[in-house]
């Protein structure tokens, strides 16, 4: 009996021969030569030869399978690298977009913080300037005491303050308030002012000194002038006059102290 290996070879050979085209009558002798797979040829092979042929065929099939597997692996590796590159590029763009957005946010926050710091610094500078001006005005008010001590100079000042107050009210009856210690000087000022007022306005006027309500003694000096019912007042104390002058001359004072403001086009 034939070995198992030989039977498999014979079976494969028979199937192979069945698929072959019939031999033409005019075929050449070489065509009529027996095939290596012809059963007659295989019958002449030993089991060792059959096993050798089978191993050869298996090695060939295995080689083709390995090559096919390598081809599949190479294609899969290529597709993997392409997809990986696409994903990496997508994520890189997302990361760049994220950090670009964060950078813009940080830059905006820096601008806001810088603006806040500049505003705070500007406010501090303005406060320091205002404090300096307030200190100067306070010092000026303290120096007003020197004016009061000079009786002649103070009398002239009171004359002008009383007359100015009368002109501002232009009432038929008016009253004047002063510090108690200034009463003699104010009486002189009123007596001088009435004729001048009548001459200028061509009107009669009745001016009384309020000796029931004196101004506080801690003020520097000056007068307050009221209409007949006391509802309208002209404050001509030395402090109020200093405040008025300071307000009117504040642009000049600031320029003298801190220099000209380049953003200021007009002087108040």
Structure description:
There is one protein chain. The radius of gyration is 61 Å and the shape is rod-shaped. α3 (47-149) packs across α6 (238-248) and α4 (151-169) packs across α5 (183-201). It has helices at residues 4-18, 39-43, 47-149, 151-169, 183-201, 238-248, 250-258, and strands at residues 173-178, 206-209, 222-227, 233-237. The protein is α+β, with helices and mostly antiparallel strands and 268 residues long. It has a 4-stranded mixed β-sheet with strand order 2-1-3-4. The longest helix has 103 residues, at 47-149. β3 and β4 form a beta hairpin. It contains 7 helices and 4 strands; from the N terminus they run ααααβαβββαα. GO terms for molecular function: proton-transporting ATPase activity, rotational mechanism. It holds the Pfam family vATP-synt_E. InterPro entries: ATPase_E_C, ATPase_V1_Esu.
